[in-house]
Amino acid sequence: MDLPYPVERISEADFYFDRKIAVDDVLQGIPGLFLQSRYGNHDVRISMRGFGSRSNTGIRGIRILLDGIPESEPDGQTRIEAIDFNALGAIELIRGNVSSAYTNAPGGVINFISDLLPGPSSILSFNQFGSFGLRSNGIKAKFNGVEHRTLASYADHSADGYRPHSSDDWQILNAGAQLISEGGLSTLALHLYYVDGIIHLPGSLTKEQFDADPWQANPREVARDARRLTKKGRLGVRYNTFFGDKNQHEIEVTGYGTMKYFERLARTYRIFNRNGVGMSAHYTGKLPLFGSANEFTAGFDAFYQSGPVEEYQNIGGVKGDRLDALTNEAIGNNGVFLQDILTIVPDRLDLLIALRYDNMTFAADDRLFGLRNSSRQFNRTTPKAALNYKLTPHVAAYASYGLSFDTPADNEMDNYPTSSNPTPLLNPDLMAQKSKNLEAGIKGS
After folding, report:
1. SS (H, E, C) 121-143
2. pLDDT class for 30, splitting at 50, 70, 90?
3. Of 13, 101, 195, 220, which shows the fewest CB atoms inside 10 Å?
4. What is the pTM (predicted TM-score) of this model?
């Protein structure tokens, strides 16, 4: 109620008995949120207040976090195959522009939180069965003590799909541990996951094909054996501590590494290898200003990812022997931010001032034709100001104005023959999306 944002927190109890196959199963009913699932939990499109609707596949304009660590790529593109909804303890959402705090987040932020939360130790077996060969089985175990919490889960999912050539098969492993100091002022947490899966793509249909048989697969995609193979993992470590006479200071530091291997079969056979490393840190101090309560936060975050992309002929779903293209792609983003929340009228009126600077870089090196090497850079400062007024302890009115910044995704940066310079790999004409956001609302609990 103290923040000038529409904030939603969903606990595990809210979706405990729901189907948990795709993200729309656990986030249905959230105002301002539109979810469209293409193949189960694959190619999910999430639109929050219109942002994200321009993406045909994947999630854009909305920052996706898993345990506070970016699941979004450095360029903002997100796929959420690695999230096991049975392993979650809570989900937090901020709707509306939060570009002053997160990169590529003009539409909002969704943070999926693993079940490293207070509660009794337990072992849970989950088993779901459905039509079209759907089977989802797994186990989750958590062991909690006064000064430690541990979690491990494994999920095995498969389905035939309701169209030919649309089966998928996934295994997801999640694990985490948290050490808590005596008194609970400091925590050290470890988060990791590994996912291995494959999905076959039935393809889109023409109007004539749909009229003839709306359930058929596109014959061209079947002939290509169009499919996506995904293997990816992540390891993250976070340290958080409160200190000072009244514990009015807080520091949090997070570091993580990622590995990704993709095979994408369509017109060609492409192999992606990507490794990434990231870090974030922030300091928060509750220090009076002009005799009023005041909370100041400063922080930074950075995420860098690179690796080669190989392209071969796709011969009926088999990789050809000839290497047709070899490109090394690198994407990096880093940002710094400041935020201050000043209480103007105690227990009534708060003023938020925030400022963030983002720098995003793209680099593409053609290993077979070096003249096509290219790079692009995008940067912008995104300020925000907001007021939050409590009408009662449980009802608040708020208003905000801020700028947002959303860079193109890597797969949107491909050059084209009619650009101002068709030689480089990266499009020299494409610019970032910028917007101005004015919001006013009322909320209660």
Report:
1. CEEEEEEEEECCCEEEEEEEEEE
2. confident
3. 13
4. 0.93
